[in-house]
Amino acid sequence: MGKSLVINxxxxxxxxxxxxxRVVHLINEGANPNSILVITFTNxxxxxxxxxxxxxxxxxxxxxxxxxxxxxxxxxxxILSDFSDIPYxxxxxxxxxxxxxxKNKLRLGFKGPAFLRNYESNQALKKYDEYALxxxxxxxxIEYIESKYRPSDEYLEYIDDxxxxxxxxxxxxxxxxxxMGFGCDVYKARYLQIAKSYDLWIDLMESxxxxxxxxxxxKARDILSDEAxxxxxxxxxxxxxEFQDTDAVQMQIFEFLKGIxxxxxxxxxxxxxxxxxxxxxxxxFNDYSKSPEFENQILVNNYxxxxxxxxxx
Length: 313
What we know:
By secondary structure, this protein is of the alpha/beta class. The chain has helices spanning 15-28, 43-56, 61-66, 72-83, 94-104, 121-133, 138-148, 153-165, 174-180, 183-208, 213-224, 227-232, 248-260, 283-290, 307-311; strands at residues 4-9, 36-40, 68-71, 89-90, 210-211, 237-240, 263-268, 295-299. The strands form two sheets. A six-stranded parallel sheet has the order 3-2-6-7-1-8, with helices on both faces. A two-stranded parallel sheet has the order 4-5. Helix 4 (72-83) packs across helix 11, helix 6 (121-133) crosses helix 10 and helix 7 runs antiparallel to helix 10 (183-208). The chain is elongated. The model is unreliable at 303-313 (pLDDT under 50).
């Protein structure tokens, strides 16, 4: 069946069809349907793939239902459920995460110089996302910020006096902050507190048994890093769609899966990466394409667009 395969497919080249045919081939070659894991990056893509298996193949519905076709987050949630004695609540929607953050922002230190209004919570949450996806060393980051971006003594004195004279007021007004020329100092104080609070945020989610999308990936990766846990999962034939949109934590998960796989197939196109803002790195796909460990297949025909569109320059 061959262990590792990279399929480099351009726009309209039939990536979904290739995955379907690859799975049918594996089953015809004797692969157990329970051993097949197909990972996509959106619920819509996962649902479409399931429908295509039903519509475009002769596979029995029972066989299709035995395979796991899911998003990376759904897969990681199943790992957490299977290996954790404690049920975790996933903060699926951004509104849920904002609410959880705002309920706990004082515990996270967003007060005094680093005050944060409820509608400004995304300033912290977006940074938390970056720290998780890029696996930032928070201790080194804190040291850097403290050395380069400390708020002014004048701002710190102003905030101290403000809360002493206005004990029942949550925040200084934006107008007053602007008039005093402290806008940059507010940013610096928050920037520092976001870095200081990141580990507290992780601890808070752990103690409350909740996960946001990024912490879910981290926890699943840590579970799979245990060799006994990894070997106990059934997936020995792994296929990953849109591999160019893989980030660093996902890549570690995929590497673990590749280590136990009988066959490992990735499909993608480095030129179609759209999630760089979420730390997706097409380098992972390119590295696999160039690796002697992988057989490399390139699909160039565009079956979606007319000749005029394909030739447009």
